[in-house]
Q: What sequence folds into this?
């Protein structure tokens, strides 16, 4: 498809928005078909240099999600927020991909979905609760240690022994966490409860990725991720009803609503499309390094917009953690079970 064909597809979608006498149902079908053609055009005919820019934008959107979550949980309690986010993700996936999801929802996916959804719930729950008492940049770097932990989660579950570089990366990451934990002006270590929860969320996410990589070989990745969101959303709903206060008028303040919309539409849907298009046109190793800049964007945004103070010891720790992540992602592909599924719009950052 040529560039001019892509322009015609966009114009067709815009005509659907303005109507052509087919009624609302017809307009919706035309709009969905138009954007479906546009997505296929972008996926097949995209310049690699622009694809790298998309991956960088994806990392920036994910980095900004820590700040937006921090704003949202100032009014919405963590589990209610994540229930709404998971519900929004499920609705978006059904609206866009119901024909590719529903046929694969069979009894055989129940147990894998519970395992994947349970670990994803634990990851997001710990991260969001910890974010109430932790700066977004610090949270992002500690969470990013999942890149280092994932080979060891694969070892624990599937007995694939990690490479020596993974062990070196883990040691470097551990030293980095130690620098982050150093009290300013002293030689004593002090990890707060929020820090421990964030590291726990990174461990849970490492097991989640290991399980997803395994089950995606036998089941549709799209349907598995939909079930992941559904199971996690159900857990968040139960947890919110049992342990958190009921919804209040504070939820409807403009900054809170805008933050929530960012989390669902930008950090979930738009960022994942950018990632998938980018992965289709950029080598996996290069893409992994670009996406690792998520934590850099997060700490930068937090310092600029929220005034997060970054001490010298924390900065050294961040550099060591990021170095460990780079060590892991450059060599991680050797330990990921094959075959790797084609990129799909399947997950939340």
A:
């Amino acid at each position: 498809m040529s560039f001019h064909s892509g322009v015609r597809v966009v114009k067709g979608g815009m005509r659907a928005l303005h109507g052509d006498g087919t009624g609302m149902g017809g307009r919706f079908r035309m709009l969905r078909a138009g954007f479906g053609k546009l997505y296929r055009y972008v996926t097949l005919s995209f310049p690699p240099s622009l694809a790298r820019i998309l991956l960088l934008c994806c990392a920036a959107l994910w980095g900004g999600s820590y700040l937006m979550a921090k704003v949202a949980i100032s009014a919405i309690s963590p589990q209610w927020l994540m229930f709404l986010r998971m519900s929004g993700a499920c609705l978006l996936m059904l609206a866009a991909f119901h024909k590719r999801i529903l046929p694969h929802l069979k009894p055989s996916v129940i147990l894998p979905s519970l395992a994947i959804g349970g670990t994803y719930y634990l990851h997001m729950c710990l991260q969001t609760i910890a974010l109430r008492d932790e700066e977004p940049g610090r949270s992002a770097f500690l969470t990013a240690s999942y890149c280092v932990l994932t080979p060891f989660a694969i070892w624990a579950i599937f007995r694939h022994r990690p490479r020596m570089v993974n062990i070196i990366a883990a040691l470097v990451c551990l030293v980095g966490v130690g620098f982050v934990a150093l009290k300013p002006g002293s030689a004593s270590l002090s990890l707060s409860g929020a820090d421990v929860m964030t590291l726990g969320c990174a461990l849970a996410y490492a097991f989640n990725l290991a399980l997803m990589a395994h089950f995606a070989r036998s089941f549709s990745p799209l349907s598995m991720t939909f079930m992941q969101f559904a199971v996690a959303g159900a857990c968040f709903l139960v947890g919110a009803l049992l342990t958190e206060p009921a919804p209040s008028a504070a939820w409807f303040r403009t900054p809170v609503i805008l933050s929530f919309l960012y989390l669902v539409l930008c950090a979930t849907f738009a960022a994942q499309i950018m990632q998938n298009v980018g992965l289709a046109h950029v080598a996996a190793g290069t893409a992994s390094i670009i996406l690792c800049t998520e934590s850099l964007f997060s700490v930068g945004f937090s310092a600029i917009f929220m005034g997060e103070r970054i001490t010298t010891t924390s900065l050294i720790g961040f550099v060591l953690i990021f170095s460990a992540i780079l060590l892991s992602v450059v060599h991680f592909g050797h330990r990921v079970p094959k075959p790797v599924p084609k990129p799909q719009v399947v997950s939340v950052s």
Observations:
- Residues 254-279 form the longest helix (26 residues).
- The CA atoms of residues 109 and 218 lie 10 Å apart.
- The mean pLDDT is 81.
- The two ends are 31 Å apart (CA to CA).
